[in-house]
Each structure stands twice: as C-alpha cells, then as structure tokens.
Amino acid sequence: MNKKIALFLVVLMFTLSLSGCLRNGKGGSDDEPGVVYEPGPYDVLAYEDIVYASGLAHTDSSTEASAVPLKLDVYCPDSNSTNRPVLMFIHGGGFTGGIKHKPEIVEMGKYYASRGWVYVSIDYRTTEELGDLDGKSQQEIVDYYRGIVPPEWIENAFTGAESEKEIQQAVAMYAAQRDSKAALRWIVANAETYNIDTNEIAVGGASAGAITTMALGITDLGDFRDEISLTDDPTLSTTNLNETYEVQSLVYFWGSNVKVELYNSVYEVDRYDGDDPELFMAHGDGNDPVTPYEGALALQDIYNSLNIHSELVTLEGHGHGAWNAVVDGKGLFELSFDFLVDRQNLNL
Questions:
Q1: Which helix (H) or strand (E) holds 213?
Q2: Could you tell me the CATH number of the domain that includes residue 93?
Q3: What is the Cα–Cα distance from 47 to 68, expressed in whole angstroms?
Q4: Does the residue 307 lie in any domain?
Q5: Total domains in the fold of the chain
Q6: Rounded-to-integer distance, Cα 150 and Cα 233, Å
Q7: Is 12 a member of any domain?
Q8: 35 in a domain, yes or no?
Q9: Structural domain of residue 256, as residue ranges?
Q10: Percent helix, strand, coil in the chain (nearest 5)?
Q11: For residue 346, is it within any domain?
C-alpha cells in the first residue's frame, strides 16, 4: 500500500475514534433559553491531564518560584451533539492537597457525561506547591510569594493566622482561585473542540472546591487575576486572558462563602449582587468543624436577600464529605443534575 495512503488511513481512524467528543461544533448557542439536547445514555470518553495553563510554584528548597503546568480532565458523551452544557468541578482538600481524579469525582463525571454534558475536573495549586517558609519574616514571605499572591493578601493573612501553615493556606486560597478562573477561560477558549454551549456553564465543587466555586461565581471576572501583573507573574500569559465567561449555576457540596468574605474584606468591596448565579447546596447538618452547616444557612439568607434562586438540600445526620448521602431516593449526582436541568431550562 502507498505509504501516504496508509498514513492517511491511520490518521483517519484515530480522528474517528475521537469524533464523539472532539468535533467542530459551535462554542456557544444562539438558541433561545430552553435548548433541547439528547440526554443519553451515552458511552463516556475521557481525556486526562490536559494542560490548561501554568502557574508559579515553589519546592521545599527553591528560593525563586518557577512555572508548573496546571492540568484538567475532560469527560464527554460519545455523541453527535453540538450544544452541550458544561459543568466544571473543583476538588476539595483544605487547600493543602486533593486530586482531580478522586473516585467520587470521576464517578460524577461519568454520570454527567453519560447524560449529554461535558464535565471538566481541574487540579490547581495547593500548599504542596508553596515550598517551605522556614521561619521567614513577613517581608521575606511577601518576596517569596511575589507573583503567586499580592502583598495585601499576605498582609491580611498575618492579621489572623496563628501558624506558617495557616499563612500558606491563605496563599493557596488565592492561587486556587486564580487557577480555577484560568481553567474556566480555557473551557471557553476550547468550547468548539468539545461542542460546549458557553451559554450553559455551571461550576461546582466539594469542601475547599465549593469555597472556590462560590468565589468564582460571585466575584468579578478580573478578581483574583488583575491584582498581579504580568511582570510579576509571566505565566498569566498562558491563561487565555482575553476570554470571558458567564456562569449560570453553582453546585456546592459542604462548603462556605469564606473566600468571598475574605476578598470583600481585603479589598473593601461587596461582590454580592442580584446577578450572581443560582445556587444548589448539599450540606450535612451533623457535626462539621471544617464547614459548619450554619454557613450554608447564612449563604441561603444572602441569596434570599438578593432574590436569587437557591436550593439547600440538608443531608440529615451527615458530616463533612457525605458523597454517599441519599435524599428522597436520590444521590448527590442526581439531585444536582436535576437542579441544573430544571433551572437552566435544559429540555431533555
């Protein structure tokens, strides 16, 4: 066989194997609200460890920060649909660790993708990428984290932190937010590749991921981005800075709005307003010293005061991390899915 023809056939077969997920469709829908899409079930195609941006990081022995790749996984239906809604999910871990391929997150990704959605699970920088403070002074820490976090964020951390670990967690909270916004801009930039309808964007997370989710939905597009210059953080140029997005809905598992409150405090602003995304919350009412149930009630009060639709599903008797909770015969995946389909008016 002619070598050129053989090569063409190999490339063709490979392309066809990807076509269920990677297809040149539209990146945003011009349809009126109430877009109709096929619900499946579909086979699920997964694409792992895709680099969506870079960020500055430290090792335990480094004196200067260097760039590290930031990665995500994409789950999508093996279908011909061209206007898929998307849910970007952010893992938990107290900003000290965590992984995008936690088994429950993978299972959730397959649940959504088998029903016609694109599901994107992201990693982000945590304290694992923030080196060792080793008794550094406040000014030394400011210099050490230049380009990773703005000085005013560290100065605020020093007012309340009781240990170097807590200072690093505060730094990681900022870095995680910067990264999650970069991931969402990557999704918009690559919407045509995955046939994503950019009018149907939802963001969710668990624990620290839910905290980051709330700040992503409520803060302005430039927040956690424009406080650091390209001079101090050249890796910002990898984050699709020209892209914009509008989040329709938030999915919150046992989180809080602490990061929004912190941003408001540091910059003396109030980012809550009547245009914030609608909110689904699942939170246990059991003993949870990490993210108490009262925080969900307070967040619901804020949403009520702004006349924005929210739904709080109380996981009775459960504490933190209640992935297996069932309410009225439905698990978390189905509960959140039903909320998004209903509130985003996605007709199956």
A1: helix 208-218
A2: 3.40.50.1820
A3: 20
A4: yes
A5: 1
A6: 10
A7: no
A8: no
A9: 43-340
A10: 35, 20, 45
A11: no
pLDDT (tens, 9 = 90+) of the chain, 348 residues, equals 443 333 333 333 333 333 445 543 333 444 455 577 777 899 999 999 999 999 999 999 999 999 999 999 999 999 999 899 999 999 999 999 999 999 999 999 999 999 999 999 999 999 999 999 999 999 999 999 999 999 999 999 999 888 999 999 999 999 999 999 999 999 999 999 999 999 999 999 999 999 999 999 999 999 999 999 999 999 999 999 999 999 999 999 999 999 999 999 999 999 999 999 999 999 999 988 889 999 999 999 999 999 999 999 999 999 999 999 999 999 999 999 999 999 999 987
Q: pTM here?
A: 0.90
Size (the chain), residues: 348
Question: How many alpha carbons lie under 13 Å from residue 222 in its C-beta half-sphere?
Answer: 5
Query: What end-to-end distance do the CA atoms of the chain give, in Å?
Result: 47
Task: Name the phi and psi angles at 59, rounded to 5.
Answer: -100, 175
Q: Is 268 left (phi over 0), alpha (psi -120 to 50) or beta?
A: left
